[in-house]
Amino acid sequence: MNTNKPAVPNTTVTRNVHDLDKTTDNLYESLVVIAKRANQISNNVKEELHGKLAEFASSNDNLEEIFENREQIEISKHYERMPKPVLVAMDEFLNGKVYHRNPAKEQK
């Protein structure tokens, strides 16, 4: 996932509801697609973050030896500044970057 996209806003944006149901003809189906994509993005970012922070994990369970690691703090701040997964998923959906299909509609 490219996290340096300037096109995705970091704050919520008011959307026109009619823009969401253009591709699926159903608002709720569109929201399900966006929610599932947001979960995928969230899981990918979470795995990536845990992988990077695992490098800093210590094998000592001694509470007295807890110290701040500057690199770890910078990595955490970077991930906190990233746009939320729902905002990224919404942007991808509205720009046609999400592949989706409904097997129930295909059977008819």
UniProtKB/TrEMBL annotation:
Checking InterPro entries in the record gives:
Pol_omega/Rpo6/RPB6 (IPR006110), RPB6/omega-like_sf (IPR036161)
Q: Which GO terms describe its cellular component?
A: DNA-directed RNA polymerase complex
Its name, as the record gives it, is: DNA-directed RNA polymerase subunit omega
Q: Where is the signal peptide?
A: none
The GO molecular function terms of this record are:
DNA binding; DNA-directed RNA polymerase activity
Q: Which UniProt keywords apply?
A: DNA-directed RNA polymerase, Transcription
UniProt lists the family membership as follows: Belongs to the RNA polymerase subunit omega family.
